[in-house]
Amino acid sequence: MMQLHYYPGTASMTPHILLQEIGAPFELVLVDRLANAHKTPAYLKLNPNGLIPVLTDGELARHGGPWLLGEDYSALDPFAMMLCRWTRGFTSAPARSRPHLGPYLQRVLARPAVQRALATEQLAPPWV
Ligand SMILES: N[C@@H](CCC(=O)N[C@@H](CS)C(=O)NCC(=O)O)C(=O)O
Fold it and tell me: What is the C-alpha separation between 66 and 72, in angstroms, rounded?
């Protein structure tokens, strides 16, 4: 099951709301920001940037359909691809290495519009 590591009112609100929207099963894990829990070695293993949130994968794309919202490709898919792309330099567990995220990202990358945008911006592989 997905786990959203969150702290109330922070940047974790967006994925929290989206998870509520899609009705996917997930667990909330409170990151005690006031106690700097997002700077502990355990948390930094999840997110080397030491920022909240972290969404741990496991069941993504199992709530039905190839895209984040199900059967229909939406603006969330390139947005998710962009965010995942920013993890491509992580030495541990970049998004592409996740069991469900990896194939999902390949589906997004395979879209002609995505390929045209990447080519126009002259971005070299690895794209995610
Ligand atoms: N673009 C990032 C922004 C994350 C971010 O800036 N999180 C803030 C909380 S809103 C944070 O963890 N700041 C570090 C701190 O509070 O020490 C995302 O959306 O994941």
Answer: 8
